[in-house]
From TrEMBL:
It is found in: Membrane. The chain crosses the membrane at residues 354-379, 477-498, 909-930. Catalyzes the reduction of fatty acyl-CoA to fatty alcohols. Its EC number is 1.2.1.84. One of its GO terms (biological process) is long-chain fatty-acyl-CoA metabolic process. It catalyses: a long-chain fatty acyl-CoA + 2 NADPH + 2 H(+) = a long-chain primary fatty alcohol + 2 NADP(+) + CoA. Residues 364-456, 916-1008 form the Fatty acyl-CoA reductase C-terminal domain. It comes from the Eukaryota. One of its GO terms (cellular component) is peroxisome. CDD domains: FAR-N_SDR_e, FAR_C. The lineage of its organism: Eukaryota, Metazoa, Ecdysozoa, Arthropoda, Hexapoda. This is Fatty acyl-CoA reductase.
Amino acid sequence: MDSQSPVQAFYSGASVFVTGATGFLGRILVEKLLRSCPDIACVYLLIRNKKGKDLQARTEDIFEDVVFDRLKKERPKFRHKVVAVAGDCALPNLGLSEQDTKILLQEVSMIFHVAATVRFDEKLKTATAVNVRAPRDLLRLARQMPKLKVMMHVSTAYSNCDNDVIEERIYPSSIGYKELIMMAERLPDKIFEDITPRILDRHPNTYAFTKQVAENVVGEEGRGLPVGIIRPSIVVSTYKEPIVAWINNMYGATGVSAGAGLGFLRALYCDPDCNANIVPVDMCVNSLIAAAWEVAEEYEKDKTRYHTRIYNYESSNDKPLNWKEFMDASRNHGMLTPSSKAVWYYSFGLYKSYAMYLMAIFILHVIPALLVDAALMCAGKSPKMMKIYAKIHKFSTVISYFCTRQWVFKSENVRRLLAKMSNDDKATFFCDLRELDWDLFFQHYLRGVRVYLVHDPMDTLPEAMRKWNRLYWAHQAIKVVAGFLLLRILWSLLLFIYNKTWREDHKLHKPSHFIYCVLHQLLLKSLIPCTLRSSESLIVHRLSHVDDRIDLDEANLTPIQDFYKDAKVFVTGCTGFLGRILVDKLLRSCPVSTLYLLVREKKGKNVDARLDELFDDVVFRRMKKARPDYRKRVVAVSGDCSLPDLGLGAQDKKMLVDEVTLVFHIAATVRFDETLKRATAINVQATKDMVMLAKQMTRLKAFLHVSTAFANCIDDVIEEKVYPMAMHYKHLTQITQVVDDRLLETLTPYFVEKYPNTYVYTKQIAEGVINEEAQGLPVGIYRPAIVISTYKEPIPGWINNIYGATGVVFGSGMGMLRVLYCDGDADANMVPVDMCINGLIASAWDVAQRFQETKSDFQIPVYNYETTNDKRIDWNVFRELSGKYGLYAPSELCVWTYCIYLIKSYPLYVFLSFFMHMIPGVLMDAYLVINGRKPRLVKTYKKIHSFSSVIAYFCTRCFDFRSANVQLMVGKMSDRDAEVFFCDLKRLDWEDFYVTYVPGARVYLAKDPIDTIEAGKRHYRRRVSRNGKLYERKH
């Protein structure tokens, strides 16, 4: 050429490195550079070996493509400018050899990074390697290139599709590229694949997500370099060059056109009014070439102030086209050139409603596919249509995100680029979308799909038209038959309804009415006996009577009381369930000198106010009467087990170190669904901090750590020993401190693994902390089973939470919980809280004795405090006793009759919970909405199901506990200690316990006073009889 345009002159003498040269955009880019930039010096193409072909063979294959025919004609000697470089963007450092790296560093002056995996369903590990790590490595390579003039990174207009407005700037990604690459390289494939949905967050697929992260790579790693980003929207076939309508892939909009034209695709979930936002590939590549020229110019103007320039190359602003217009144009022009390979006549619809779309694909895709596959099987052939439609539906699902949403794109940089371009450049590198003629484009677009994708040459058109005509009449015939069948079905349905309505007065409901009345009478007689006066009197007496016995005789102390004489005790978790009973018992039955209670400020209340609030609980009523001066022996210590070093101040820490002789570490988060970060902080790190504090206590006589009998529930046999940690506590605390909350939540199931929840998992590790860090201390581990209400003291039946078994009692007693996934023969393994605390107090005495006796040979004792060995109760007995004593004192607040089924089969449980929980919940919520009230039952049942799933692990398994240490400790106790600190589970009477257990839940949880029993029974009878009366009124 005698004269060159500014863009052509810019590429004169350039050595260009292109990644992704074998792809759709890459081929057009290479062709355009070689054809329209004649003085370009060299084009280096990154190519990987594939399918047994070496580098040379793959390069030759590329240039055999018809898209290079024009180049061969106009520039026949172009091949000497092309240099193939072996590499792979899926490998570190692009898989380049040292020699090739050296050549590229010395020669390259321009880079076009086009390579990407564009599969929407690509695995995140692969997408991260290709779309994130590769541009990082390429940018680090580019930084070493002394001749570098520009580098262009090809992204996508939808990289930031989680925003409604997409500007020409880099948006922060939800995860840093360094963290993403690290996880992709280090995490096992299975784990990384499973957590992918959480990592993607609001992004629809791995492609868009990794492209957004890649832009952040460019922004950070490309700082100070002449780097630009171009974001094309949905790229379709060529508009004009090098040949009209060339395309080589089925991605995006082209797949819809091809599928509909061949008669496979008949329905798509798509909003017809949304922008299709397509751009021809040749115009896209021209804009890329021109953008590189502008980026280099802008960089040279002011290198220090240059920031990565971004170009949103999309058509919604300059040449908008919605999906309805796209499909109308595809149909109108496609029908003029149908393919001989079409399987059915064109019949396609866009469905904005997802429900209508599902109905359409069932009728238009699934049913025809099943019929065709059945015919193929009858003919002895292999079925294939359902497999084809499975792929089609997967494709439809993938693109539906972009077909049902609208974005506002800002493209000022593209307009600025077009304004800078000379007239020659605008003609040579045509990329102004305002001059695009969609009608002209579609005239050739469907022909290109037919020829280059379907590989159906135009000379088969006469044959195709004849076939198309036959398919048309077959299509019309099917529509007539389908219409007739539909009318026949509707007519049959109307007859069915008429017959049933006419017969209703004669036969409907009579058999069911009879059965119901029989069951109704049986229910009334069996569940509400007439002679309950004595039981009711007993319940009222037991719950209202306070035992005024004084357990502490200063002049005649028991051995355990003597051990606690003048003791200064530090208690964590004192505001919790176990903690309250422990504080009460120590103050009431032990001559302790001081109780240091760790209390955190909460809801604006300081520790002293919170302590006053604590002692207002009814559970301390007996203690206050026996020890009116109790407050003199209580010191509130400000702290928080979720904070480092228990949140203790320096002065309080010194006081505890100097004074404390006994430690009870009860504090824990007992929520089964607690986040791993919080559970680790409270249950693991706080335990470690408590041990570190105890090591400084020179007067320490005993330290009891309260764990749980189920800390090692992954084992069938649970001995009184410390098991190896599931994960070393140092590793766990480090991970929870470093990894962000959202990612940690995603990884939690893989850390917890076999353990049912974060509570037992962190409790298991906390035992390891004690075993590893507390050697040489007089320490013991106390493992209670499922802790329920008080048996005898300080008041019978007291409880303040609905965890575990009590939640089952409360939920079923209120008529809300009707079915539970549970093996009725499995051990319930419950222990009353007062007996549990007495055992804890006695265990501290036992630990101190053992430590004194053995000293250097002391082994940390573990106490499994549970009932399976001494007073076994299974879930069937638990249910029977709950029902029996619950019906003696029903609550006015119950919403339905007591009725709970223990289901061992999980599928049956799911089935019954749907009918017995969700359906009544939906119906009741509908009733509330009709009456202008807020629905609440479905939400309540979601919480109930969450609770049920949480405890199911422990209701469906049996464990073999060993409790020799507990038996030895109980055997050592004197007769008086055995009475004052009653903890021998062999003496527990479940029948006697239940007299106050269920009614206690009524009083202390439902807040329904015991003097309303009669009103509760009347309310309960109305609930039981209501349905029977409804039937009686009908007849």
